[in-house]
Amino acid sequence: LPCYDQGLSSSLNLYRNSPNAGMVEFQEKLRLQHENSMHTELEKLLTTAKPSEAEISRKDFEGFKKLFHRFLQEKGPSIDWAKIQRPPEDSIQPYEKIELKGLPADVASSLNKLAVVKLNGGLGTSMGCKGPKSLISVRNENTFLDLTVQQIEHLNKSYNADVPLVLMNSFNTDEDTKKILQKYTHHRVKIHTFNQSRYPRINKESLLPVATNMGLTGENEEAWYPPGHGDIYTSFFNSGLLDKLIAEGKEYIFVSNIDNLGATVDLHILNHLMNQPSDKRCEFVMEVTDKTRADVKGGTLTQYDGKLRLLEIAQVPKAHVDEFKSVTKFKIFNTNNLWISLPAIKRLHVKNAMDMEIIVNPKTLDGGLNVIQLETAVGAAMKSFDNVLGINVPRSRFLPVKTTSDLLLVMSNLYSMNAGSLTMSPKREFPTTPHVKLGSSFTKVRDFLKRFESIPDMLELDHLTVSGDVTFGKQVTLKGTVIIIANHGDRIDIPAGAILENKIVSGNLRILDH
């Protein structure tokens, strides 16, 4: 069932929302007309594909047609709120309970049945960077990709195991990522890549593709999109890599976003998966963690029609959004760290039984054209699998870097790094992460780095807000709550060696070289 934008095209609204039963035939004709027009346009586009890409593009379009068909078929808000229940107690296990089981002597045999999949389709544009987000430096010149490779190599060396790394790229990131992969040739980790599908953006009014041909440049630069990480199941299968890994004896994949630095392979969860009775094998595990005020928009787990199911904010009827955001009713959210059975993915894909809600994502292109893109989320398929489980993990397994505010945290002495893994410094007395809010002058990584001569000591920081034209000298220490606000036209230079504890700094402070 789709998650709606409120202002969809007028013709679509006409047949979705018409109360008149006599309109049904008209609606059906209109739906078929939209579908036939779409098929005609897609065939035209395929005639412009390069011979080497024609087969891949045809497979992509087959997937897109299924999504578009469902989009036209389905009506109304995504869920019946009255049916939503709290998940049963035993459906979400506390991590501590799983950890208590300890680890077997032979960890390698479990590791050899695992592959790590990182979602690597995103660009660094929101942080002002060109190219794949995974190639942004986050710690001591190491990129997200470097840290991932180091983590898995460390596992393989420590346990004499063979855990491969699989990157799900998109047409936006594939070329740049492949160039960089050459530098890992001598690391002890096999790296595979496959590409997410490439779907056409649709004009919101005509419901037809905006692309004029299969090209990715010029007028077609904005005509395509990767359709969300729910596409992993189809594109993984189509690439042949799913069958290859099953043939190599792999049973599970651990899937996570490449920008979540907390998403490392957890041996206790892996051990739990491998030690289920064969008829009760978990096919899908979602790591969840306790909600804080910062996570109120995150997807949560509910019981719906007798199945454990992911509920996203986009699916919630407007009248219930505040209830959804409540930390008391829905106490956990999805980290998007998932453990999924490979044979189960194959079974569901072959049967065409992977059920994921459609997310309708409205966009405005640079020229002002309103388009929609149809997407799905990887966690939404949860309800299609058997023996699914939520595991309530420590917050440390959710450390995403979405903004330069997050980047400041992971670059600081709050974290120490070992073999590519970041852990909270033992010198910090309480395990919560400080709340950091940097203003628009810090949005781009390049500008952010210019404003810090060195990253401040933040071991005792609770809250930092910085707004306006502010720079930090070397070896600054921040403690408690620190708010620094330079009004328009002012500039504040925090002097080298300054210790700010529970301070509000405003006005104008210039420090110039003499």
UniProtKB/TrEMBL annotation:
Record-linked InterPro entries: Nucleotide-diphossugar_trans, UDPGP_fam, UDPGP_trans
GO BP terms: glycogen biosynthetic process; UDP-alpha-D-glucose metabolic process
UniProt binding sites for substrate: 229
Binding site for UTP: 133, 196, 228, 259, 402
Keywords attached to this entry: Nucleotidyltransferase, Transferase
Catalytic reactions of this protein: alpha-D-glucose 1-phosphate + UTP + H(+) = UDP-alpha-D-glucose + diphosphate
EC number: 2.7.7.9
Pathway membership: Glycan biosynthesis; glycogen biosynthesis
Gene3D superfamilies: Hexapeptide repeat proteins, Spore Coat Polysaccharide Biosynthesis Protein SpsA, Chain A
GO molecular function, a single term: UTP:glucose-1-phosphate uridylyltransferase activity
Summary of subunit composition and partner proteins: Homooctamer.
Function: UTP--glucose-1-phosphate uridylyltransferase catalyzing the conversion of glucose-1-phosphate into UDP-glucose, a crucial precursor for the production of glycogen.
Family as reported in the entry's similarity comment: Belongs to the UDPGP type 1 family.
PANTHER family: PTHR43511
UniProt name for this protein: UTP--glucose-1-phosphate uridylyltransferase
Lineage, top ranks: Eukaryota, Metazoa, Chordata, Craniata, Vertebrata
